[in-house]
Design a protein that fits this description.
The protein is α/β, with parallel strands linked by helices. It has 2 domains: 2-132 and 256-320, D-Maltodextrin-Binding Protein, domain 2; 135-247, D-Maltodextrin-Binding Protein, domain 2. The chain is 42% helix and 20% strand. It has helices spanning 2-22, 55-71, 82-90, 104-113, 146-153, 168-180, 192-201, 211-219, 269-282, 286-294, 304-320, and strands at 44-48, 75-79, 98-103, 124-132, 135-139, 158-163, 184-189, 206-209, 223-228, 257-263, 298-302. The strands form 2 sheets. A 6-stranded mixed beta sheet has the order 2-1-3-10-4-11, sandwiched between helices. The chain has a 5-stranded mixed beta sheet with strand order 7-6-8-5-9, sandwiched between helices. The protein is globular, with a radius of gyration of 21 Å. 46% of the residues are buried. Belongs to the UPF0065 (bug) family. Residues 1-19 form the signal peptide. Pfam families: TctC.
């Protein structure tokens, strides 16, 4: 059903693209340059800079399956280490058949804190398609309330799992600590799945995670959701009653993980328009709505100048927070 919802939206874009190709000698189609629009000439790769099972991987696979089902173009999801998955596109200037799945961590936080060989401006930014609020979670029964967790964290004895360094979740943990005058002891893991297992096993006290990473464990009664950094309650039934940080005496604005797609550098206007059209139409489909609901995300679409301004502002905000 999810694929069918996206298929309806993508079919419009595909039909227009095919019509543009057949009429390229006599007209300039909407969204295309002189001589006709662009469509992929070979298999499409969806590059995910994350392990299988996380939010970026889920997004990449949702989109790839639906896109392939409609267009008949093979769309292969490839998983890479976080930085490698981004740098891969930097080495493919002008190639429209590869599209990257990005987020706040690998597009904004890491490049701002480390010299890793790229910034967001090195790529063709295509679209933000959703926001992902971060939550503080713990092993089931570890704390009686958010206030209990905060009180214990003020002693400086609580450990918090994090994926590598320079991640979006690390930034949120630092913001929570600052907001409530806490001291967390970071414990570094290789991936989000390792962090979840560490929480369940009691190897760490807390973790800052997005819903896709922990909702199955909440349903199984293995994890409690202690605190939300969102500005309003989530519509998801397992998250609707989670206390908000701004209800507990802080006016801190917490970083939000955005989910985005980006292209290689130096894409032509026709290539950029093609992907922006496809992604925009996806956000209007039933399949996208299901994706948002199932993964407890907040829908948000940004493209073009609005997206570039947003990313630039995120870098400036991070710098102001000591990034």
């Amino acid at each position: 059903m999810r694929r069918n919802g996206l298929a309806m939206a993508l079919a419009i874009s595909t039909a227009l693209a095919l019509a543009a190709c057949s009429e390229s000698q006599s007209s300039t189609p909407e969204g295309g340059g002189e001589g006709g629009g662009w469509t992929p000439e070979e298999d499409v790769e969806v590059a995910v800079g994350a392990q299988p099972g996380g939010g970026s991987d889920i997004l990449g696979r949702e989109f790839a399956a639906a896109y392939e089902g409609v267009t008949g173009v093979t769309a292969v999801v490839e998983n890479y280490d976080t930085v490698a998955g981004v740098l891969l596109l930097k080495e493919e200037p002008g190639r429209g058949e590869i599209i990257g799945v990005g987020n706040t961590a690998n597009m904004i936080v890491r490049p701002s804190e480390q010299d890793i060989g790229y910034t967001w401006e090195d790529f063709t930014q295509l679209a933000v398609i959703a926001e992902d609020v971060s939550y503080i979670v713990a092993r089931a029964g570890a704390y009686s309330s958010a206030e209990d967790m905060i009180e214990q964290a003020r002693s400086g004895n609580l450990t918090v799992g994090q994926v590598g360094s320079g991640s979006g979740d690390t930034l949120v943990a630092d913001q929570v600590a600052e907001a409530f005058d806490l001291t967390f002891q970071p414990v570094v893991y290789e991936g989000g799945g390792d962090v979840v297992r560490g929480v369940i096993a009691g190897d760490i006290d807390l973790a800052v995670l997005e819903p896709t990473e922990f909702l199955p464990q909440v349903e199984a009664g293995e994890i409690d959701v202690v605190l939300s950094t969102g500005s309003e309650p989530a519509p998801h039934p397992l998250l609707a009653d989670v206390p908000l940080a701004n209800e507990l005496g802080t006016d801190q604005e917490f970083a939000t993980q955005v989910r985005l797609f980006f292209g290689a550098p130096e894409l032509s206007q026709e290539q950029e328009d093609y992907w922006i059209d496809v992604l925009t139409e996806w956000t209007e489909s039933d399949g996208y709505a299901e994706y948002i609901e199932e993964n407890a995300l907040t829908p948000r679409l940004m493209t073009g100048d609005e997206l570039d301004t947003f990313l630039a502002d995120q870098v400036e905000t991070l710098a102001g927070n000591g990034g």
